[in-house]
What we know:
Layout lengths: L20 E2 L16 H19 L8 H25 L7 E2 L23 H9 L3 E8 L2 E8 L5 E11 L4 E11 L3 E6 L2 H4 L7 E7 L2 E5 L14 E8 L2 E8 L3 E6 L9 E2 L4 E3 L4 E7 L14 E2 L11
Parallel strand pairs: 1-2
Antiparallel strand pairs: 3-4, 4-7, 5-6, 5-8, 8-9, 10-11, 11-15, 12-14, 12-16, 13-15
Helix pairs in contact: 2-3
Amino acid sequence: MTVRTPITDGWTLRLDTARHTPEQAPPALSTDAVPAQVPGCVHTRRGRHGKLDRGLAHHFDAPADFDEWHYLTQVNQARAIATGVEHWRSHWPVCAGTVLWQLNDCWPVTSWAAIDGDGRLKPLYHELRRLYADRLLTFQQRDGRLVVAVVNQSATPWTGAVTVQRHSTDGTTLAAAGLAFTAAPRTVTLLDVPAAVADAADTAKELWTADADTLRAWHFATTDAGFAYPDAEFDAVVTPQGPGATITVTARTLLRDLLLQADRLHPDARTDRGLTTLLPGESTVFQVDNWTGADPGADLTTALRCVNSPRTKHRR
Length: 316
């Protein structure tokens, strides 16, 4: 069996289809609220040729402040792992497994772990639950073609149809197709996206979704710095429930990688969701536990953030 050494170059990993592949972001704010510019944090950010800041530079302009840096590095970590795991899972059985380092930290530090030193779940943790589920949808490239990989690692057949759509940034559906599939147990089925859907007039203003059952895959064909995001607009409703609350967010514009940082509401608060992307008109519900004194009128300004929030979207 061929075992690939750890992949550290995210730009070439899609050329790699090893048989078996083994593999950073800050902790939650309440775990280690150290500004990014203090010496210890600077060393971690810029050590080994500034890997964290260099990784952000591929997609975003330099963060304006610590809060923006904190959010974007967590986004970058989750996206990078997702890119690799989805790629390798789509090549089953050529690649038969990935080993991710690591699950948890034992001290408060900026690292590659999915759970920080105080046991708080990073966005990566929630992403891992999606990535390693028995059933997964993912957009991939095969010989220059855009395809949807229907990954079925369950013990039962998966039969259905994938609805593939190309949208404008305002949510308008520009093209759509239904692709029927049958994925036998522990197989991957590749579905070619029809050219009418796959070919965009302007990749800076268009994006793709693929939906089957309750699963959705997203595809953006350019970096965040090159994408014409609208300024994020949404409605958020806090509903107290026992020792916590639910926060229902309804998008009025595209929201890319919306994140609720629950510990900004209360140091002990936890939420059940990570990064969530929504089209205009769509909603999602965050369950928040351990939020003592949850207030329907709570200011969510610092707790809810997405890539295209006015203060975090790329600056031209």
